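Blackboard transcription, Thursday session:
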Amino acid sequence: MRPRLLGSTRLRLAPVAVGLCAVILSACGAATTATHPKHTTKPVAAATGNPSSAVTLNEAGSTLIYPYLQVIAPQFNSKYSHITVAPQPGGSGLGISEAISGLVQMGGSDAYLSPGQASANPNLLNIPIAISAQAVNYNVPGAPANLKISGNILAQMYGGKITEWNDPQIAAINPGVTLPALRVVPVRRLDGSGDTFIFTSLLTKTNTAWANGPAFGTSVTWPANSAELGANGNPGMIQVCKANPGCVAYIGVSVENTALEDGLQEALLQNKAGNYLVPDLATITSAVTASSGNTPANLRQSLIYSSGANSYPIINFEYLMINQTQPNAATAEAVRTFMDWAISPTGGATGGNLSAVNFVALPTIVIPKVEAAINKISG
Amino acid sequence: MRFKLTAGGAGGNAGPTFLPSARKLAGADLTARDRAVRWVLLGAGLVPTLMLLFLTAEMVREAIPAFVYSGWSLFTGHVFTFGNLYVTKLTVHHGVSAPHGAAYGALPFIFGTLVSSLIALVVAVPVAVGAVLALTERVPARLQPGLSVFFELLAGMPSVVYGFWGILVFGPLLAKHVFPVLAHLGGLLPFFSGSVGYGEGLLTASLVLAIMIIPIIAATTRELVRTVPILAKEGALALGMTQYETAKVVILPYVRRGILAAAILGWARALGETMAVLMISGDLLNGFPANIYSPFSSIAATIVAMLDSALTDATGMAIHALAAIGVILLVITLATNLLGRLIIRRVSHGVVLPIGRGV
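(Written on the board underneath:)
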């Protein structure tokens, strides 16, 4: 294993190291190089590369990040043939708990660690690899394909205060639209879910009763509502919403294409500036630029309800929960290799991969902090 | 226990002779292998008992903090929540600390478990008894074994298949065609009126549970009906009773207690049923179903649904709370099982033939 380079020595030697690696590459044809050709001013990551024997990195958790990992895992394996990344769904709650217990090397989560979890597990890092968003879908036959809805209205729907789709509050912001007197059927996630976390974060910021009551979390005290239904995972949300006219559900953008194909309608969600938007590349990017200015070093930051006329209100970091101390050096190196590759625009975070799941790349301002976190992983 | 032994053929009429050392004599004849086998069998025999005790003890031990924290509100409270895991403040009750706002009230789950299983029982018992009577009294004897196979097949179907079928086919079918008709009964029974929903709810889940417990009740009832003396049935027929009157007057009173015991065993199965209920119940939280078609939640389904959220609770209280409601389910199920067995035992000890009763 190559020795780790420390502090300022890295900055001076970085261009030399990159140049040397390029020479070795062309000479030997083996892929053992640092993976940031664009960030030449950044420090070279500590030892990464294709290990000599097979390593499997297990990932479980968020169903929002799952489609993205399904896209990039085979590409990673074709570049680093000895490392296999095996993703599984199960919900962010599962991702966090299995990362804590060590059952998986990477726990996928849309929610960052809570203060309690962080203090109980000081070695657990939450490292984002992309920016994702969440849409609000509904199934109201006869309604327009894009209805205007606000977080305040959603909080009242889930709280049981708004029970019919022809409620005056909805009609007030959708002039000229007649909605049927259909019962509102809110659908919530049963499993510990990062989607619940980001959705309830929006409700907390837009409705005081919700902020003082259920607040936000991967699982919250949903108000008693006899019309409410539960579903497991993002695909489950689509299936339940499809089967129950009158439903409203929060669904991650990575499966939004499926939701729309299945006949669900997508809401125009009100942002902080008062405009109504759907999640797409422009609105998500606008929100990212407005909100990721002061990300702390521990990368626990909420990007919900950011300012900006064209900013979509529900966006979030997609985290992989990784233990700082891996069981052995080979696993640590494999994890670092994957993480470096995943955030690199020429590795995993290509335009094609991200747009396949409607994600957006991490903003450049955050990348140094992410790399610092990756370099903490050791075995 | 004292054994009466008469020595050989001598003095055979001399009355009982006791050999207190008979057992010792028997013991002296055991080889080492016999003794080893005895120990192994003892161990094997202890395993079920020890497993039950171990399971119960561990569950109770895990549940104690939640019992202390909630007190009686565990049985009377309406709200079951793990609290706000993203706030550092902790709530403390009786010396036990839990996340801010945590409350563990299991009344909706207890209600849901008991009501769904009772409705299932009310539907399943007449159907099972009727099916058995049809099978034993009206179906020709050569067809009986073939048709009874269906009961066993129904019993062997995995519950996840029932849940899958329930949520995709049975529930929507009921909601579209059966429930609107039942809703007209709303005038008589208030909980039958109101929104019919789309198939996920109390009545759908109870009906699927009923289908699952029919084989249990039917199998036991079939064995019991076979024990009715043929003399009594022939006597009734000779007196000119129809088959219906025979069943009502002779067969059913004879097996009534047995059917009760079978029903209780079926009830115990319905109480613990997890997967099917999880998929069809709609998982209502913190409230009671508004009418018989509304979503509800049961203890078993809730434990499965909330387990992975519970694992993210850094204080660990969420796991204790789930263990506490698990203990409640354990106690209910054990009690119903014991009750069923007690009744069966009383049934098999000399039931007097009730000929003449009701004639």
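Lecturer's comment: Chain A has a mean pLDDT of 87.
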